[in-house]
Amino acid sequence: MSGITVAADFDVAALKSQSWVHLVITNDEFFTVASSGETEGVEQAFAMAAASLEAGVPAYLIIRLGEQWVACLYVPETAKPRQKMVYGSSFEALKHQLTLDVETSMQGSSPDDFSYNEYMAKMSTSHSAEGNLTKHELQERDLARAEQHEVAAQAANASGGLSSSMALSPEAESALNQFSSDTSLSRIMLRLDLKNETVVLVEPPSSGEPCPLPTDDDEPLYTFLRCAGSLFFVYACNENCKVRTKMIYSTSKGALLGATAGSLGLKPDHKFEVGSVDEVTQQSLMEIAAPAQPAVPKVVAHARPGGKARSRPPRSK
Questions:
Q1: Domain ranges of the chain
Q2: Which of 40, 206, 302, 310 is the most core-located residue (most Cβ within 10 A)?
Q3: pTM attached to this predicted model
Q4: Are 70 and 63 in contact (CB under 8 A)?
Q5: Calculated CA dihedral for residues 42, 44, 46, 50, nearest 10 degrees
């Protein structure tokens, strides 16, 4: 699996002693501290952190609020497309690896987007109960969140691995390794833990008949199946699943396939999507693996009267 990580000598404890920290991604793809400082108050910490940003250079800002932190993603409009993708797809990984208690996250394209006033305005808005949001506002919020995961998935596809914000759990990685090396296994089922942002195992790999799938449609499902000498990847997503869930599963699907193909050699012969696990049957898999061939009509020779075959054109009268 690929992803940006902190270097082995990264001093997380020293970072947490600062009031604000400016981090960047190095050319060899590690998180590193570009600058940091201590201030007497939170408002000054925001001002100093924003002042450390450079025009056209993406960065992360970490600002301390007592025991909690604000995590900021700065991606200027003039940054290169690859930089935008890498920084955007690694934001969640940074927060996770620094083991920060993040109160809120902020994103922007200008240093002015990370002022103390902007932070207070964001917190005032976020304290509004979700129930007060209109249906349209909820949809827009879910779309914005899903777009972040789509950027991460696109970055993962380009690098041949999972996005840094959606990694394989240890159990899922071990089970996929087992499924890849043991061709007698016929089924492995996976889902996303959206809270912890990991791909998790639904049940251990099993052998025998791959269908029916012993689970429900409450959440979408990724499944690798072996049937009729073929390897299948089936993405089951019921229409009743939440919009945000559908979007994150959809945008993470390609990254999962890229990671399992690159590191485990799991390259499905057939990939398809269904609206329910009930649609995945032994018969449907076999029909896809070996589709029925249309019958070829027989050409019937029409005999001439008297059983004689014509050997030359008829004479003209």
A1: 5-127, 167-289
A2: 206
A3: 0.47
A4: yes
A5: -170
